[in-house]
Design goal:
The protein is mainly α. The protein has one domain. The chain has helices spanning about 10-30, 35-40, 50-70, 75-100, 105-115, 120-135. Helix 3 (about 50-70) packs antiparallel against helix 4 (about 75-100) and helix 4 runs antiparallel to helix 6 (about 120-135). The protein is elongated and about 50 Å long.
């Protein structure tokens, strides 16, 4: 964080760092070990891998975005909003595929740990950053 002041509490910075590292690692795994992911979920391995690998690239980029938000929260708060929207709408789409039997129930566990657990913390962080932007300079959170 350097000398920049931040309105975020320590736990908020911790969430951003964790989400950033998790997403970078998950994205790399999706790019390099996609077959293992399909095997774990009991799905047939795809013949064409590029779409899965491209999603991995995007997941890793979101991870970098969360780390950028952690370093300069107020100026980069909208990166967090984009991440929050992704973590909300992605699982909704997956729920549809679980409900119609295309994806296994195990996918719900993956969705929980990859996306759903971030809904409330990301919303609280985004709300804090939006309020801080509206009210002007803030002191470092505790």
């Amino acid at each position: 964080m350097g000398s920049k002041e931040t309105p975020l509490n320590k736990w908020m910075h911790g969430v951003l760092k964790f989400a950033g590292v998790y997403n970078v690692l998950a994205g790399i795994c999706m790019m390099a070990f996609y077959h293992e992911g399909f095997k774990t979920l009991g799905l047939a391995k795809p013949d064409f891998n590029m779409p899965i690998q491209l999603v991995g690239v995007l997941v890793a980029i979101f991870g970098v975005g969360y780390l950028i938000v952690d370093r300069d929260p107020i100026d980069n708060r909208n990166v967090l909003l984009i991440g929050l929207l992704s973590k909300f709408f992605g699982p909704l789409l997956a729920f549809f595929y679980v409900a119609n039997g295309t994806l296994p129930l195990m996918m719900l566990v993956v969705l929980f740990f990859a996306d759903i657990i971030y809904w409330v913390p990301f919303w609280l962080i985004y709300r804090t950053l939006t309020r801080a932007k509206q009210s002007g300079p803030q002191k470092t959170g505790s």
